[in-house]
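Subject: sequence -> structure tokens, single chain

Hey, anyone have a minute? Need the predicted structure for the following. Not urgent.
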Amino acid sequence: MIRVLALVACLFGATANAETMKLAVTTSFHNSGLSDVLLPILFQETGLEVQLLVVGTGQALRLGEAGDVDAILVHSRSAEDAFIARGFAPYRREIMYNDFVFVGPQNDPAGIRQADDAIDALQHIALHKPNFVSRGDDSGTHKKERALWLAASLDPDHFGTWYKAVGSGMGASLNTATGLNAYILSDRASWLKFGNKGSLALLFSGDPVLFNQYAYLPIDPQRHPHVKAEASQRLENWLTGPTAERLINDYRINGEALFIFNAQK
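Reply:
Had a minute. Here:
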């Protein structure tokens, strides 16, 4: 379900002269809580009110294709490149990154703590067949998970009942994993922010293949002339500027950074 969050308007009251725009963002980005930090300061500094449509990466791209948003913030490079190639955005601008992590039962029945790499971790899971929760929603996290299974020469479309594709956002999928005491691939920020960890623990991380880049793509006004290109550019300028850099790098939970700013000036 698309949730439109006019966060800044609620907190500060949009003035009659405030400019608004629509930005589709991933559930993993929103679940991190970073938007609650960024948007009020953005409004204070620029007067720009950003309405968030919180969806998976696949749905965000479809909203962009339809011209229903002015820009998107997503994390699936191959899908982003295809989106640009089809003429829906003129470019992508990298903003920040974190990484994906494997979460699962603390007793780790599949033994992935000792895995050599992410592929080895998935092969251990496929061998032991414990419950595994997949977002199953065409999100950036789901796309990454499927790519990793295929890289391990495994096809999740032919797994048994131990593989649970739930078709939900990151928070709901993590809740399902907690209830089933199951393994799951999560972005680090969502896991750190998640409050219902139950008996789950972060079991494997650090493989370079788990790198998770977030990028900003403005919708091309030549494809959709009604989009607010000037507002989209103002947001991009702010997201890649010094205030956003400080807020992103300083955003931590229990002393651990959720994102690292890497926008090129």
